[in-house]
C-alpha cells in the first residue's frame, strides 16, 4: 500500500521507504514494544500539533497534557517533546536527567531513533500538505531488553558500538535495527548511503549534490545543530 | 556538475545572500526557511516558486532532503554526537562563515 495518495510526482522508492519505516515503527524493538514505539510516534505528532512549549517546560508537568495511564513513562514523553521541539537546546545534563528518571541508556537510543525518524517522515508530509503516513497495527510480542552488541560510552553521551564511519552514524549503533532504518530513510531522502562520502559530485535524483548539501546545511543551521 | 565548480556558503547562511554559485541556491534556502517556520502562506508561495522555476520533482526532492535533516539533527543533538576528529580543522572556516560556533549543541571532537 502506498504511503501517500497524491498527484504530486513522489518517487516510488521514497514512498516505499516511508511505508517500510512506518512498518518498522510498529515492530517490536530491542527495548520498546510495538505499542510503545507507535506511542512514541504519536507523541511526536502531539508535540508537533500542540502549541509549542518553552524548552524548560515538560509536558508531564502541565496538567491534562499527559494522561496518568499513558503507555510510556513520563520521562519518555518529556524527552520526545523536547527532542521534537527544541533539539538545539539539549545538554549532557538534560540527557543525564532523563536517564536518572529511569530510562535505560539503550532504550533512550531507540527512543531517539524513532522520534528522529517520525520528525523526518511527518515533516515531509506536512510540508507538501499530504496526509501523514498511516500507522500500522503494532506487533504483540515483548522486547528482549538485552544489549545486542558490546557497548561503551566514549565519544557520545550514549553508549556506542565500535563501528567505522562518521560519528552521527555511530550515534545509534547500540540499536542496529535503528541504524538500518536511518540508512533506509537517508538513502531515499538524502543521498544513497554508499555514495555519502565516496561520490560527492553525482546528481541525487532531480537535485545536484551541491543543491542537496545547501538544503542539508541550511536546514541543520535552522535547527541550530552544530554537528 | 564538475568538481571544480566555484561555490560559496551564502545560501547556507540565509536566503537573502544569493545563490552562492549553486543553481537556485537562494530559492532552495528560502524553501528550507518556509518548511522550518511552518507558515502556510509563506510555504505555499515558495513551493509555487520552486515548481515554476525548477519543477515539481525538484520541489519533492528538496522537501525530502530538508525533512531528512529534521532526523539527522535530532540524532546528533540527542546523543551528544561530537564533530568528527578529521573534520575539525577543514571545517573551521566554514563554521565561522555560517555562524554555528555559538550554538548550544556545539561539541568538540574527541581526539
Describe the fold and architecture.
The complex is a heterodimer of chains A (227) and B (111). Chain A is an all-alpha fold and 227 residues long. Chain A contains eight helices and no strands. Chain A folds into two domains: 12-189, no CATH class; 196-227. Chain A has helices at residues 12-25, 34-49, 74-85, 92-100, 105-127, 167-170, 176-189, 209-222. Chain A is globular, with a radius of gyration of 18 Å. Chain B has one domain (10-98). Helix content of chain B is 59%, strand content 0%. Chain B is built from five helices and no strands. In chain B, α2 runs antiparallel to α3 and α3 (40-53) packs across α4 (56-78). The interface between A and B is large, with 71 and 68 residues.
- Name the biggest interface: A-B, 71 and 68 residues
How many structural units, i.e. domains of chain B? 1
Number of strands of chain A: 0
Q: Structural class of the helices, strands and pairings of chain B?
A: mainly alpha
Q: What would you call the shape of chain A?
A: globular
* N- to C-terminal distance of chain B: 34 Å
Shape of chain B: globular
Radius of gyration of chain B: 16 Å
Strand content of chain B: under 5%
Helices of chain B, by number, come to 5
Task: Report the average pLDDT across residues of chain A.
Answer: 94
- Proportion of residues in extended strands of chain A: under 5%
- How far apart the termini of chain A lie comes to 36 Å
Question: pLDDT under 50 segments of chain B (min length 5)?
Answer: none
Based on DSSP secondary structure assignment, what is the total number of beta strands of chain B? Answer: 0
Give the assembly state of these chains: heterodimer
Helix content of chain A: 40-55%
Helical fraction of chain B equals 55-70%
- Reading the helices and strands of chain A in chain order gives HHHHHHHH
Low-confidence segments of chain A: none
Number of domains of chain A: 2
Amino acid at each position: 500500500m502506498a504511503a501517500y495518495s497524491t498527484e504530486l510526482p513522489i518517487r516510488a522508492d521514497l514512498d516505499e521507504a516511508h511505508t517500510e519505516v512506518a512498518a518498522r515503527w510498529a515492530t517490536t524493538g530491542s527495548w520498546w514494544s510495538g505499542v510503545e514505539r507507535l506511542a512514541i510516534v504519536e507523541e511526536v505528532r502531539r508535540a508537533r500539533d500542540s502549541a509549542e512549549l518553552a524548552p524548560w517546560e515538560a509536558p508531564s508537568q502541565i496538567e491534562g497534557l499527559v494522561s496518568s495511564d499513558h503507555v510510556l513513562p513520563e520521562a519518555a514523553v518529556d524527552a520526545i517533546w523536547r527532542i521534537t521541539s527544541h533539539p538545539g537546546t539539549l545538554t549532557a545534563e538534560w540527557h543525564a536527567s532523563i536517564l536518572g528518571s529511569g530510562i535505560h541508556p539503550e532504550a533512550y537510543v531507540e527512543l531517539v531513533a524513532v522520534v528522529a525518524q517520525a520528525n523526518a517522515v511527518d515533516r515531509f508530509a506536512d510540508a507538501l500538505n499530504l496526509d501523514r503516513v498511516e500507522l500500522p497495527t503494532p506487533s504483540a510480542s515483548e522486547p528482549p531488553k538485552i544489549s545486542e552488541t558490546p557497548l561503551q560510552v566514549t565519544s557520545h553521551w550514549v553508549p556506542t558500538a565500535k563501528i567505522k564511519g562518521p560519528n552521527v552514524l555511530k550515534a545509534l549503533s547500540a540499536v542496529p535495527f535503528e541504524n538500518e532504518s536511518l540508512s533506509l530513510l537517508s538513502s531515499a531522502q538524502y543521498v544513497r548511503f554508499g555514495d555519502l562520502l565516496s561520490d560527492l559530485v553525482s546528481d541525487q535524483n532531480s537535485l545536484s549534490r551541491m543543491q542537496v548539501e545547501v538544503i542539508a546545511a541550511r536546514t541543520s543551521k535552522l535547527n541550530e545543530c552544530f554537528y | 556538475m564538475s568538481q571544480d565548480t566555484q561555490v560559496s556558503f551564502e545560501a547556507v547562511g540565509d536566503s537573502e545572500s544569493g545563490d552562492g554559485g549553486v543553481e537556485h541556491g537562494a530559492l532552495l534556502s528560502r524553501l528550507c526557511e518556509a518548511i522550518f517556520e511552518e507558515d502556510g502562506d509563506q510555504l505555499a508561495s515558495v513551493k509555487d516558486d520552486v515548481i515554476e522555476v525548477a519543477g515539481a520533482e525538484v520541489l519533492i526532492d528538496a522537501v525530502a532532503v530538508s525533512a531528512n535533516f529534521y532526523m539527522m539533527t535530532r540524532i546528533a543533538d540527542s546523543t551528544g554526537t561530537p564533530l568528527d576528529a578529521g573534520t575539525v580543522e577543514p571545517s573551521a572556516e566554514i563554521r565561522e562563515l555560517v555562524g554555528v560556533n555559538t550554538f548550544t549543541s556545539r561539541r568538540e571532537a574527541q581526539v
